[in-house]
Amino acid sequence: MYLFIIRHAVAEEREEFAKKSTDDSLRPLTSKGRKKHQKMILSLEKEFEKLDLIVTSPYLRAKQSAQIVSELTDGTKIVESAELVPHAPPQALFKWLKTHCCAQKKVAVVGHEPHITSFVSYLLSGSDKESFIEMKKSAVALVEIGSFEDLTPSKAKLQWLASPRITID
Predict the structure, then answer these.
(1) How far is it, in rounded angstroms, from Cα 15 to Cα 108?
(2) Residue 98, CA distances (Å) to 5, 77, 153 in order
(3) Overall domain count for the chain
(4) What does the pLDDT look like over 67-116, one tens digit per residue?
(5) pTM, to two decimals
(6) Which of 26, 54, 79, 152 is the most buried (most CB within 10 A)?
(7) Can you give the CATH number for the domain in which 18 is found?
């Protein structure tokens, strides 16, 4: 079974958006961020074949990033999970995946820093103390797991980690 871990694309600047007195969860992607994310996902198109499910944070920028993945993978179903918000503990997403993805073979999760790299580190090492992976915006990691129902910390294997820099012309 495979788990794609995706960091959301470039969004409006936090400080500028805060001046609008709007909740940060509503901060959208920039048009440049959207284009860069599309390019990143298209560069990995073959990897995403037969994607079963996309799980996203309920924050707008993550949902917009997930929508791009869905559009480029023939409309893969998207579900929201509060376990993908920026400061959620990695164990919460771990438990959610075990409960909700048992019948899936290929799942993508779309989230934020610092959560997303903490989650990858937890999957790979079993430690939730410190992340040892860096993921730029729009980066994608592929982790191989035995199965979602038997998901165990430190038993996953990192297959690859792709930075958006791979798409530079």
Answers:
(1) 29
(2) 15, 18, 11
(3) 1
(4) 999 999 999 999 999 999 998 999 999 999 999 998 999 999 999 999 99
(5) 0.94
(6) 54
(7) 3.40.50.1240
